Amino acid sequence: MSIDPAALLVGSLAGYLVGAVVGLLVMRRDRWASACSFGAAAISASFGMLAGLTSLSRAAGTPAPRFELLPSLIPYIKLTVRLDALSGFFLLIVGLLGFALSTYSLGYAKGFFGRKNVGVLGAFFNALLLATTLVVVADNVWMFLIGWEVMALTAYCLVSFEHERPEVRDAGVLYFVMSHIDAGCIILGFLLLFQASGDFSFASLHDIGATMSPHRRDAAFVLFLLGFGIKAGIVPFHIWLPAAHPVAPSNVSALMSGVLIKTGIYGLTRVCFEFLGTPPLWWGVTVLTVGTISAVLGVLYALMEHDLKRLLAYHSIENIGIILMGLGAALMFLHTGHPALATLALVAGLFHTINHATFKGLLFLGAGAVLHATHTRNMEDMGGLAKRMPQTAFFFLVGAVAISALPPLNGFVSEWLTYQALLQGFGTTASLTRLIFPLSGAMLALTGALAAACFVKAFGITFLAQPRSEHAAAAEEVALSMRCGMAVLAAACVALGLFPTAFIRLLDPLTHQLTGVQLSPRVSFANGLVLASLAENTGTVSTPGIVMMLAGLLPIPFGLWLVFARNAKTRRAPTWACGQRELTPQMEYTATGFSKPIRMIFKALFRPRRDVQREYDYSPHFATKLRFESHVEEVFVQRLYRPLQIVLLRASRRIRVLQAGSIHAYLLYIFVTLLLLLLFAL
Amino acid sequence: MNLDVLAILAQTALLLVLAPLLSGLIKNGKAKLQNRRGPLIWQPYFDLFKLLRKDMVISEHASWIFSLTPYVVLLTALSAGLLVPMVTAAAPMSLFGGVLALVGLIALGRFFLALAGLDAGSAFGGMGSSREMTIAAIAEPAMMLAIFTVAITAGSTNLSRIVLASQGPASRFLDPSHALAFIAMFIVLLAETGRIPVDNPATHLELTMIHEAMLLEYSGRYLALIEWGASVKQLVLMVLLVNVFFPFGLATEPSPVALGLGLAFLVVKLLALAGAVVLVETTNAKLRLFRVPDLLSAAFTLATLALVSTFLFQ
User: Fold this and answer.
1) DSSP code of A629?
2) Is A546 close to B79, i.e. CB distance below 8 A?
3) Out of B134, B142, B225, whose CB is closest to A598?
4) ipTM score here?
5) Per residue in A439-476, pLDDT tens?
6) Beta carbon pairs, A and B, within 8 Å
7) CB A38 within 8 A of CB A102
8) What residue numbers bound the domain in which A653 lies?
9) Residues A343, A358: one domain?
10) Exposed, middle or buried: residue B5 (CB in 10 Å: 0-12, 13-18, 19+)?
11) pLDDT-based confidence at B164, cuts 50/70/90?
C-alpha cells in the first residue's frame, strides 16, 4: 500500500480534534456548528476507516507501525499507538460507523436547532469518536486507560445531553457509576499483569499469562471479564444499557450501541487472546455460558418493550451475547489445542461484532428517523410509516432482516459460523463439557427465532397498517443526509452478507496474529462463492448462491401470472372490519398484544402484572372508561440491584459517622492512616 | 453441467407438482378416517388454478410488503427444497447451503408472512402473526437440537452428506439417538406445518386459527402463491424428515433405474409419513395455545436425550 496508515490515523485524530474545537467555537450558530463538527467527523472517520483497512491488508510478517503521538511531559506515560491487525479491525468498525453516523447527524441535528446547543453535541460526538479511536489503537496501558476514561466521560455527557428530563439524568448517573466500576476492574486487572511484566507497554504484556501464577492469572481474567463485560453489557451487568441508550440522541445511541460497547469486545479479545496465554477450560466455559444467557435474556426482554429504542438496546445485549458465544468457544478450543477451530469461532465472534455494529447502527438510525418524524419512541403510537417514510422503512427492514439472522444478509453469515464452530466443538473433547456446545447452539436458535419475532413486531407495529396517532399520520420522510447515513450502513449489511469470504480474507492477518492460523484458505471455496467451515465436507453455505437461486426461481411466479392471471384485475378496498363501519387503528394488533404469548410462556421470568379498571353504567362488558396497565418485572433490577442499593446506602450511612465535620478528627484520621502505612511498610 | 441444470429443473418441478398432491392426500386420508368421503386428492390443484385466474382485492391499508410476501413465501420454500435430497442422494443445490440455510430460508418466508399478517391492519392478521412467531420461536431450539444430533453423527451440516453418512455401513437406523431425534423432529414438523395438536389447517374459526389468520386478507393469485408455498414448505420438511432418518433407496447415480427406484421409495416413505400425520390429526384434539409450549418442550427434551445418547450408546 502506498498510503501510510499511520498518517491516515494521525489525520483522523487531528480531524476529530478540529471538529470538536470548531464545534465549540461556532456554537452560537447552529447551522455552522452542525456542518463543521459533523462534517469534520465524517471526513476524519473515513480517514480512520482507511487506516483500519490499510493496516488490515498489511502483508503478514511486517511489523505493525508503532509511533508516539505526542511527546509526553510525564516520564512514565508514553503516548504511543500501534496499528496492528486487531486495532485495524476495530478501527474499521469505528470509522465505518463514524462516517455513517456523522452523515446522518448533519440532518438529525436540525431537530435540535434553536432548542439545544448543537455545537456542544458535535464537540462531544467528535471527542467520543476520538477517544474510541485512541482506545483501539493504544499501545500501552496508560494510553488505553486514558482513552477509556475520556470515552466514558464524553459518553456520559452525550447521554445526559437532554438533561432537563429527570429520566435522562438518572440514566446518565447510572451509566457513570457502571462505567467507573468497569474502569476500576480493568485497572486492577492491568495492575496484576504489570506485577508480572514490570512494564506498561502492550508489547511487554504479550503472553504474560504464561509467567504468572494460575491464581493471579485467573484473578486477572475475572477482573477483565467483569470490566469489559460491564462495558459490553453482559447479563447481569446490562442494566445501564437499556437505561442509557434510549435517552441519548439517536445518533449517539447508534454510536454507543454500534461502537462503544464493542470496545468491551476489543478489550476482551486483546487481553484473552494476546496477554493471558493458553486459557484454562473454565474461562471458555464461563464466557460461552455468559454469552448464551445474555443472548437469551436480552432478546426476551427486548420482546417485552414497546419503546423502540429500549427494544434496540436490549437487542444489543443479545448480540453481545452471540459475540461472546464465539469468543468463549474459541477460548475452549485454544485450551483443547484446536487452533483452526478456535480461529473459526473467533472469526465468528469478530464477524458478528462488525455485523452488529452495522445493523444495530442502522436500526438505531432508523429509530431516530422515526422519532424525528413522529416525536415519540412509543411503538403503540406509530404505524403506517411504510407509506409515509418508504425509504426509512426499507432501510429499517434491511436491518431487521439482518439482525434476525435471516439469509442472505450478514447476521445469518456470522451466526452460521457460530453454529458451525459449536457443532464441531462437540468432537473436541470427550468430557461431559462438550454438551455445552449443542445446548448453546439450541439457545442460539431460540435467540434467533425470538429476534425474528421481535423484529416482526418492531417493523410491523411501527411501519405497517394504519397510523395509531396523529403524529404518526403526519410523519414525513426525513432529510437526505439522514437517509444517506442509513443507506451506507444498509449497503454494508448487504455487502458483508453477500461477500463473507472476501471479508474473512481481510481478517487473515488478524487471526494470524492471535491464533497463528489463516482462516480464509480453509473456509473459502469455489473462488470465494462458497463459505465452508474448515473443510468442504463439514458444511457449506453460499449467500450469493442463495440470492442467485431465489432470482433464478423468479420466472415461476412470473410464468404463472403470464399463463393464468394476465386478464385478472386488481382492486383496492378497505380491510374488512367485521361489520363495523370502518377499520380504525384501535382494531389493530398492538405491540403489547403481539408479545403476549411470549409473556405468558415465560411468565416465570417476567412475572407479568396487569391492572384493569373499568367504569361502566349497567354491564361490565360495556365499559364507558377503561384503564389498562401491564407491567413486567425487571428481575435484575428488582432482585439484585435494589437490595444491593439498600445495603450500600445503609453501609454508607454507618460510615458517614466518620465524617463529623471537625478538622481535628480529620487530622487524626490522617495521622492514624500514616502510622498504619508506616507499620505496614515495616 | 447439463446434468446439474436438469437436476435442478427436475427437483423444482417435482416440488411444485408433488406439494399440492401431498396436501390433498392428507386431507382425503383424514376424511376417510373420519368416515367422510372427503375431497378428491386433486382438489388442491383445482383450487390453485382457480385462485390463479381470479381477480384480486388488496387492502388499501396495506403497503408494498403485502405484495412482496407471496413471492418471498413461494421462492424461499422452493429454494429450501433445492437444498434437500429428494430422489437423488445429492441435492441439486447442496453446495449453496445445508440444513442451517434451509431453516434460515424457511424463517425468511415466515418473517415476511408474519409482516404481511400485520400489514392489512386487521386484528386477525396480527393475532396470527403473533402466534406463528411465538410457536416458531419455541419450536426452533428443539428442531436445531434434533438436527445437531444428526449433523454431529454425520460430521456435517450438509444434507447430502448427512444422508450419505447414514446410508453407509455405519447406518444409525433404529439407534436410540436417531429414534429420539426422529420423534422430536416429528413434533416440530406438526408445529411448523400447522398440523392439529398445534394449529388446525381446516379451520377458519376466528379464535383458534394461526396460519390461516395471517392469510385472511389475501385473495386470487397472491393467495395461490402463498398456499402453494405453504404446501411446498410442508413437502420440504416431510422430505427432510423421511430422507434424513430413513435414507433408503436414494439414487446415487443418474441411471433411469436408480432414479425410478428413488422416486418410488420417496413416494412410499412420504405416504407412510403422511399416514402418521393423518393418524395424529384424527386422534388428537387441538391444544390450547398455552399448552403448545408443553408439547414443544417435550420435543426439546427428547432431542436433548437424543444428543446425550449419541455418546452414551457408542
Assistant:
1) E
2) yes
3) B134
4) 0.96
5) 999 999 999 999 999 999 999 999 998 999 999 999 99
6) 278
7) yes
8) 637-681
9) yes
10) exposed
11) confident
